[in-house]
Specification:
5-stranded mixed sheet; binds ligand 0O2; 7 helices; alpha+beta; 215 residues
Length: 215
């Protein structure tokens, strides 16, 4: 029995905090080297206790198997401008030595029946505690802004319908998912044009700064 959930979740919170800093640091490095950033923004959360308990019942996960069987107690999300950026981010994560990738699920090539698209990675991440090192599972979801827009809206509707959407709504959501993906594909077509403009814009902002603020 988990008697103290706050204690149980402590290493997960630490992992989320550390990974937010690390992943946001990747974005900063792109910006400072005047390259197009493959990362637009990063969010993270520890799954609320009620959601963990609800998922344990739904997925028949025993409490003593929780650490191994629930992969998204710690969750990070990386938002990108372009689909191509997602695969670049995945490559960067594969090269890191501070985490081990255990699983990859490409729901972009293999779109879910709901219309959901994202690239999921499950990593094992070591956190340093006063009791020693603990390796925990973390789920990283990587998606475009358009995929995130769709998933956020669909997720909020889930609260109302508990996943049991009326047929008409579910068909509309699927169509909306395809429209969002078409937008991503259109943007990919003009990606080089956009990236060039964005790099010029950030360079102009740099030039416009007073000299003592230029690093
Ligand atoms: P809801 O209803 O849960 O969607 P910061 O100050 O930016 O460092 P902050 O503000 O505490 O940190 O949190 P952050 O990083 O902005 O992200 C919090 C929101 O992002 C939460 O929404 C999470 O739902 C969502 N989120 C981020 N990453 C994940 C993830 O990997 N999985 C899931 N399921 N959600 C994620 P809210 O506002 O709590 O609302
Ligand atoms: P939350 O915190 O509400 O987001 P499982 O994790 O066991 O449900 P599986 O196959 O092990 O399923 O993992 P999967 O499908 O790779 O990842 C599940 C997570 O992906 C979900 O977390 C969502 O964050 C996201 N996701 C998957 N399918 C959909 C979908 O159709 N719509 C939306 N909006 N998000 C989806 P949870 O468990 O729902 O938790």
């Amino acid at each position: 029995m988990i008697e103290n959930w706050q204690n149980f979740l402590l290493p997960y919170q630490q992992a989320v905090n550390e990974l937010k800093v690390k992943l946001r640091g990747m974005r900063k490095q792109y910006q400072d080297s005047e390259q197009h950033s493959t990362i637009e923004f990063v969010t993270g959360r520890v799954k609320p206790i009620d959601s963990i308990k609800e998922k344990m019942v739904r997925r028949h996960v025993q409490e003593d198997r929780l650490e191994q069987d629930m992969q998204d107690i710690a969750g990070l999300r990386i938002m990108c401008q372009f689909v191509e950026d997602i695969y670049e981010v995945v490559d960067l994560l594969r090269q890191r030595t501070d985490m081990t990738i255990l699983e990859e699920r490409d729901y972009i090539s293999n779109v879910k029946p709901s219309g959901y698209r994202s690239y999921h990675i499950v990593i094992e991440y070591p956190v340093q505690l006063i009791t020693g090192e603990k390796r925990i599972l973390v789920e990283i979801q990587i998606r475009t802004l358009a995929m995130n827009f769709w998933a956020t809206i669909e997720h909020s509707l889930n609260y109302k319908y508990q996943g049991d959407f009326p047929e008409e709504l579910s068909a509309r959501l699927k169509r909306a998912a395809e429209a969002a993906f078409q937008l991503d594909e259109e943007m990919s077509e003009i990606r080089e044009e956009i990236q060039e403009a964005q790099t010029l814009f950030s360079y102009k902002k740099f030039l416009d700064k007073p000299d003592d603020e230029k690093e």
